[in-house]
Amino acid sequence: MDSEKFIESIKSILKEAGFKKTKATWRKFLDEAIAVFNVQKCPWGSGSYYINVGLYFYCLGDNKSPTENVCHIQSRI
Q1: DSSP notation for 30-48
Q2: Residue 37: exposed, middle, or buried by beta-carbon count in 10 A (0-12, 13-18, 19+)?
Q3: Any idea what the Cα angle at residue 57 is, between residues 56 and 59, rounded to 5°?
Q4: Which of 5, 13, 22, 50 is most buried, judged by most C-beta within 10 A?
């Protein structure tokens, strides 16, 4: 499954869970942090993709729309 099809398949699940989408990144605003979920295309054009996740804590920064790579806790699934 390519990244576009994967994004379509998870869009409703993440929306139902309270995430808001911007391009290929979803964010959920929690009491103390922002949860970030991102789908990234593989740069080698193989049709593969990465799933990046992160948590951005309000007490450690003031970014209102963080990407997963600036989150205080981050991982790639």
Answers
A1: -SSEEEEEEEEE-TT-SS-
A2: buried
A3: 150
A4: 50
